[in-house]
Design goal:
The protein is of the alpha+beta class. Helices cover about 55% and strands about 15% of the residues. The N terminus is likely disordered.
Length: about 450
């Protein structure tokens, strides 16, 4: 589905009804409408959903257990137990409920008399699970995942803006090259027609017609290639143009990038090289790895907890319902309690799991050292390219002016009959190449800015 987009806020119409698409406007469209940008927004929601799901492990639970048996008209037993359990963050589980049992063949230990029993108490893990258990570990890991999701979103948008920005400045370069060759072709055509007139008038040799014709043909070929390169660059840019993340857009033929005169050579803080270490330390890629290590440390703590013996204590206060008074028979002597203990010997499974958890952390920590070195190099390299490309672009802008001066001087000499058509074409070719080289350097500088911000992880800042 191809739709010619017309955004009134993007730019103004040029003389040929052209609409200008600025880089900042292009980035805004990408961030707002590209499918990956929409996907990045889902990452935050995934993190929030993970935390919500983990918190569900601490939700109170109500339940009922009913078991009855009837045989040959007799009720053997009826067991009814309804209650509420409330898990807490501290490993203590609160519970309360109502139990009513009866029947001709009821086990005496289940007897609750006619009114039933009300119970309330606690269950405490005083060994394994006292400081951390699966439920608490999952919640902590989910909270870390939620923070990591924000970093993942930043990294995804950082990659997206890097690719989109590179495509934009390629489109810009190919457009400026196209303009250069259009002007060059117009000059070659004008010169060819002028030489033909002068040859017919006998003022020039016929060989000059051949020279002018060859130049005209070469310029036609160069323009065709420039047109092809510009179309391909526009097609590449269209990949990043979407509406609402679902409808692909195509760059309209009348839409053009900003002109080279509007491109500003920005200057980076000269003291940034002194802050490389801090910039590397706060890089989102390293933040993501640190969050992973934090999750691994929770796993290690949980595995360490598994080395403890299982020792659970349970206590419930009991009260028999008398008439309409549920607390009529309340006494501290009415209760039940229990103890659960187990310890595997010699803990080979638990010790092996703990060793693996420690190795995973060690592996991740060694990896982050390598990542820091690589990121530091990329940042230094990108910043150096930024500085150098800016100096080269500034220098070559004067070079283009010098080439233009040479060309104008040669044209004056040619008009005065003191130069040849070959020399004019040679000077003109030098000027064309200089213009193209300047445009390439200008685009390189803008890409270098993107590379530096990408290396720093700051292309997207919320």
């Amino acid at each position: 589905m191809f739709i010619a987009f017309l955004f009134a806020s993007i730019g103004s119409f040029a003389q040929s009804n052209q609409m200008q698409l600025g880089f900042d406007d292009f980035k805004a469209i990408v961030l707002q409408h590209h499918p990956l940008s929409v996907q990045a927004d889902l990452m935050k929601e995934k993190g929030e959903a993970a935390v919500q799901m983990a918190r569900g492990g601490f939700d109170p639970k109500i339940g009922t257990d009913i078991s009855q048996k009837y045989f040959k008209g007799d009720q053997y037993y009826s067991l009814i137990d309804a209650g509420l359990k409330v898990p807490t963050w501290f490993g203590v589980e609160l519970n309360s409920g109502y139990e009513q049992n009866g029947g001709q063949f009821l086990n005496p230990e289940n007897s609750t008399s006619g009114g039933g029993l009300i119970y309330a108490g606690v269950s405490v893990a005083v060994g394994r699970g006292m400081f951390i258990d699966e439920r608490r570990a999952e919640l902590r890991k989910a909270q870390i995942f939620s923070k990591s999701a924000v970093v993942e979103q930043r990294l995804l948008l950082n990659d997206l803006l890097y690719e989109a920005g590179t495509a934009y400045w390629k489109w810009f370069k190919e457009y400026e090259v196209l303009i250069v060759y259009k002007e060059a072709l117009a000059l070659a055509e004008f010169r060819f027609n002028s030489v033909v007139v002068e040859v017919k008038a006998g003022d020039r040799s016929a060989i000059d017609t051949l020279e002018a014709s060859i130049q005209y043909q070469n310029r036609q070929l160069a323009l065709q290639q420039a047109q092809l390169d510009f179309k391909n660059a526009a097609a590449l840019l269209s990949i990043y143009m979407w509406q609402n993340g679902q409808i692909p857009l195509e760059i309209d033929t009348n839409t053009v990038p900003i002109s080279k005169e509007e491109v500003e050579l920005t200057t980076m803080d000269p003291n940034i090289l002194d802050r490389i270490d801090s910039l590397v330390a706060s890089h989102p890629y390293l933040q993501r790895t640190r969050f992973k290590i934090d999750q691994l440390k929770i796993d290690r703590r949980l595995k360490t907890e598994q080395l403890k013996p299982l020792l659970n204590l349970k206590y419930n206060a009991l009260n028999q319902v008398v008439g309409n008074n549920p607390f009529g028979g309340l006494s501290i002597n009415n209760y039940n309690w229990g103890l659960q203990f187990s310890l595997p010997i010699p803990l080979r499974k638990e010790r092996g799991a703990l060793k693996l958890a420690k190795l995973y952390i060690q592996e991740a920590e060694l990896g982050i050292i390598d990542q820091q070195a690589r990121i530091g190099y990329k940042i230094n390299s990108a910043i150096n390219e930024w500085f150098t490309s800016r100096e080269q672009t500034t220098l070559f802008k004067r070079t283009v002016s010098d080439y233009e001066g040479l060309l104008n001087g040669e044209r004056e000499k040619f008009t005065a009959g003191e130069s040849s058509l070959f020399m004019v074409n040679s000077r003109e070719l030098g000027f064309i190449n200089a213009q193209i080289k300047y445009v390439e350097l200008l685009a390189t500088n803008q890409r270098a800015i993107i590379n530096a911000e990408y290396a720093l992880g700051t292309l997207y800042v919320e």
